[in-house]
Amino acid sequence: MISPRADCVLSGLNSEQLHRLMHVGEYIELDENKVFIHESHKERCFYYIADGTVEIYKNSGTRIHVLTTLPAGETVGELALVDDHARSASVKTLERVKMYRFDIEQLQQNPQFADILTAIDSRIGKQLSQRLRHINEVTVAVLRRKFAMSIFSIRALVLLSLYALSLSFIEKSKHLLPSTTALSLVLIFIFAVVTYSVIRQSGYPREDYGLSIKNAPEHIYEAVLYSIPIMILIVLIKWLAITHIPSLCCYPLFDPDAMFKQGVVFNWTIYFIALFFYALFCPLQEFIVRGCMQSSFQNLIEGSANRKKWEAIFVSNLLFSSAHAHTSTGFAIITFIPGMFWGWLYYRQHTLVGVSVSHILIGVWAAFIVGFQNML
Predict the structure, then answer these.
(1) In this predicted structure, what is the pLDDT of residue 162?
(2) Are the C-beta atoms of residues 5 and 11 closer than 8 Å to each other?
(3) What's the pLDDT score for residue 78?
(4) CA–CA dist 67, 58 (Å, integer)
(5) Phi, psi of 94 (to 5 degrees)
(6) Tens digit of pLDDT for each residue in 90-138?
(7) Less CB within 10 Å around the terminal CB: N or C of the chain?
């Protein structure tokens, strides 16, 4: 029995026409994972799925791209009625499937099926028109988004370059200034404000750039959970370094006054003020690197979802760590390595809440408690 779905090309046929069509079709049953339409093969037939589900896919040579799945009540391969070219995709069963196979030449040569073919062709024409309209709308939306993201990326790279030059100037002028920390924080704040204004001009919602508190408690819990092993690893690395490298054996495992090694007397007030401003600095840094740069690259890079994810994470971290290379190679490295983890966490949660909490936890632990920077 043929019972087409509402959007099936056979849905325009009446019960008498469906009855005639069913009797000329070849009833077949196929087991799971059986390919019955082969890409690049020329076949003059189409199928009606009476029971089961099939998958349409393309093979690029390096990987399989699943286009869609079709349930019972749908037809597949019907474009062969209006196009005698080779198949553009392959189709296989996802479970045991019952189908009717229709030979197009047999239908076309029999005048009794002229009314059926006319109705099917009309239905196919309407579907192709709808698909073309949908494809055009999607294409325009994608191009508009890529254009907006490319403009944003260019502006972000310009801001990042100015940020790197400003940090370099501060680093070279530190002997002329009483303190460079406050100036660096002000600089970060200014760039974050400018970047946010660029986001507002892009026309896309703030959620696209990670500015959302949706599911914040869950994201914070997950961020803390994932950060604990890294904090343990930091202690382990320092312990191995101070126990196996003679030049580092003088350093304690936990060194809160590591930030005061430049001839400055340790002071708890200054220590907590520095810690407080560092905690403020982390979300701003994450906003620039993850929210702005990584989000933009994810929309610009082509390829599979996995490739887009890791390339966006890698490139955004590489650019930001390169901006700090003038301070020291070691500082650039410790900026890059945990940044890969934070990039993955941001991709997983797509919000800045969790990744900012993780950055604060790991950064405070490494710099203010373990004193990891005294080994660089």
Answers:
(1) 73
(2) yes
(3) 83
(4) 7
(5) -100, -10
(6) 999 999 999 999 888 888 888 888 888 888 888 877 777 776 776 677 6
(7) N
- For the segment 50-74, what is each residue's pLDDT rounded down to a tens digit? 899 999 888 877 677 788 888 888 8
Average pLDDT over residues 224-236: 94
CATH superfamily of the domain spanning 15-109: Jelly Rolls (2.60.120.10)
Q: What is the mean pLDDT of the chain?
A: 81
Sorted by where each begins, the domain ranges of the chain are 15-109, 170-375
